[in-house]
Amino acid sequence: MKRFFICAFTIIMSLLTALMGGCSCSGCVEKFPLVFENYFIGGGTNDATPGYYEKLTYTVKNENSYNDALVKDKSITDKVAKYEYEGTYTMEFTVESSLPAGVETNLDVEGKSFYHLKTDLTLTSTYTVSGTYAEGYLNPTTENGDVQYEEYVKSEIWFLQRGQSFAPVYSTTEQKNTFLSIGESKANVNLTESTVKTTYNKSRFKFEKVINGKASTESHGYDYKMAIDNNQLLFALRNVEINKGGSFSLPTISPSYKSAQTLIAKNEYEDTKAFNVNGEQVSVATKNISFNRNDTFNKGPAHYVVVQKSQSANLPYKSYMMQYASPLIAYGSFTSMGSLVYTLTNVAN
Hints:
By secondary structure, the chain is an all-beta fold. It has one helix at 233-237, and strands spanning 20-22, 29-31, 53-63, 81-96, 114-129, 147-159, 168-182, 187-200, 204-211, 214-221, 228-229, 247-253, 261-277, 280-293, 303-308, 321-329, 336-348.
């Protein structure tokens, strides 16, 4: 399954208003840099400094329904396809004094520190389908007749601090993953492999892609400090101020599109949830946020993120992402397969 939060078939700041404010001149639009908070370090105006470290670990598994949303379509019977996804997801955050060797940018980065976010999703995917199975990266068939694939999505991004609107500088994504295509009565397992490098300059960004062995390079315009990279999306959600019932928009750059796509996020409700973190039961006040594309005709299914709202007895306030539910969509038919749910289990500092 693709983990891109904005993609072709699955497809967020003091207040991130519309990001486009009116101005007094006719026919022009005044633009403002994005505004984030430092909630991931407990708030305040001081930035994280070199030596800061955080690693969050999540269990990952598919669910047929998530909070009465993202429900598996009834047309996907066991005769058509059975599937199960299980694995782990880690988010590792550090502060670096330099960019990776070879990265060239005309952004003003002299003397600045860089936030470095590294993620790793590893999954064992188990299928029984009525159609065909993809070749490659295939484990032996299991004893009960299922077929298993080991797959992963790995990403890294270097971006600037809060005063520079978390502006992205350089990001990479590498993945080998399966997806289902489902027709009227038949399902096939497909496999894709890709790497993408994204480099940001003052007014343009560049994609360097290799998708299933085919290489391409493309460059597009954007507004510096007014968009984030797809690989920092979940981190950004930890660091926005949004009241219950409120919403905000955020342009996000993904390899699936040639321009920043605006996401609309809403704080649907707030409540208290129980989680098991570091082997202890914790009761956490949370914000429950949904987001999808700002597109009247093709907004796609919503994603759901549960974010820590305040300190609890066994968990300091760092605005942790406690849970995330990503839609699973069948390719071709765009049928809902349920969701892939990430649940926080371990925090290391």
